[in-house]
Amino acid sequence: MQEVVDLLKKQKKIELSHVASLTETMKGVVNPMIKVVLETIVHDSRKHAAIAQALIDVEAGAVPHRLDMDLGPATNFNQNIKQHVRAEKEMIEMLGEIGGLVKDDRVKKFIDYLIEEENRHHRLLREFSLLLDRDSVGMNEYLDLFQKYMIVPPE
């Protein structure tokens, strides 16, 4: 377990170093397409560092094996997730409409990328909501869901 925690800490440090380096590189970039790609990579590296920290917490035993919440906050949380599921569906539809109108292949590729990302978010949130609807869910079920949608790398 300690070896995994140590490696995850190293991974987190590398990710955050990558964030700092790319952030510095972006200062001189004026092309909006290149800048947004670099910003996306920086965002993903921050996300990867946060995932590494969450996994460190799990491996170190700081996170319980069950994700229990009081009924009131759990219901509110689930309703918020369901609202976001509906919003993701609207975003997918809007991006599909935009994609049908776009003539520039460079723009079309980015629209397709966004549609792919939104579809992944939509499926993940929909399945997450189904887990929240259940009375009892184990941490491994959440982890399996996150791995399925590549939020957390497979074991």
SSE order and pairing:
Elements: H1 2-26, H2 32-59, H3 71-101, H4 105-133, H5 139-148
Characteristics:
single chain, 155 residues, mainly alpha, 2 domains, flat
Characterize the structure shown.
The model has no long low-confidence stretch (mean pLDDT 83). The two termini are 14 Å apart. This protein folds into 2 domains: 1-63; 69-155. Helix 1 runs antiparallel to helix 2 (32-59) and helix 4 (105-133) packs antiparallel against helix 5 (139-148). With 155 residues, the chain is an all-alpha fold. The protein has helices spanning 2-26, 32-59, 71-101, 105-133, 139-148.
What structural class is derived from the secondary structure elements?
A: mainly alpha
Mean pLDDT: 83
Task: Write the H/E string, N to C.
Answer: HHHHH
Number of helices: 5
Find the count of extended strands (DSSP E, 2+ residues): 0
State the end-to-end CA separation: 14 Å
Tell me the domain tally. Answer: 2
Largest sheet report: none
Query: Quick one: overall form?
Result: flat
Low-pLDDT parts are: none
Oligomer: single chain
Radius of gyration: 19 Å
Helix content: over 70%
Strand content: under 5%
